[in-house]
Amino acid sequence: MKIRSFAPGKVILFGEHSVVHGRPAIAVAISEGVQVELVPRNDNSITVTVPSIDYEMNTELNEGKLDYDATHGKMITDYIYEVISLFEFDKGFDLNVDIRMYLGVGLGSSAAVTVSTLKAVSIYAGKEYSKEDIADIARDVEVTVQGSASPLDTSMSTYGGMIYIDENSKRNRVEFNCQLPLVVVNSGISANTGVLVENVRKRYEKYPLILGDIFSSMEAVANTARSAFIEGNLDVIGDLMNINQGLLDSLGVNTDILSQMVYDARLYGAQGSKLTGSGGGGCIIAVCPDNIDEVYDKLSQKYATFKCEISDEGVHAEIIE
After folding, report:
1. Fewer CB within 10 Å: N-end or C-end of the chain?
2. CATH, residue 286
3. Is position 172 within any domain?
4. DSSP 3-state percent helix, strand, coil across the chain (nearest 5)
């Protein structure tokens, strides 16, 4: 018997940075994420394997609990052990954590690791958690490891789908009427989100009228995009992504490499492309309604790239006998 769970990652489609200043944003869970497989053992050993970072470690249960020294170096494995330490077990297990997306580039990888691990381990521990429980516990784990954490990433990994964050920071599910074929391209550069957010804030203080108008334009883009998703109009979504990229560029969060990736995606046939997340590095996304394989093939010759679409289900698990 084994338990297999999956939790999706996420991308921000519209509203980066303007959401910090009370404007709406749209995020979506993606079909790439983290798959966890748990295989029971007949002893008290717990073996954690994370192939993507060449990690394998064996520890022992002590009276059913994991002796975990919470050093919290903000390593991806900290989230795994923090989850395991929440439970008591009769026997040990082997845990394989297959991370199928890039780490540390704004795709919600730590949330997906936390949520997927929590789903599998809680089932093995005999707990029946609702999705609301999982989202709450996973966020607490992220806060414990990171010191602070937005509920957005763990919510996206738990519930899936598309979320519209309104001016009151309330998360509203969008009932979209289309698929969203995306290519995600990684710059290979990690940026400091806090520094970028602070730089935009300072620019806003210096030029309040100008940046206020930019934020208002980003609000209009997000609201128009929400309507286009409901109508299933990907042509409009592509146009809006291109507009949003220009607005982000004007905030000073674009870079030469991100710009090159964005324009390469359009050159190769993407309907629209933009950076996703705080900028300064990380990833871009490209929407390709009719030619995703062609765009992917060309971009993957130059950059680290994967294809995905919307994950509407969120975290889920199966028990395989």
Report:
1. C
2. 3.30.70.890
3. no
4. 40, 25, 30
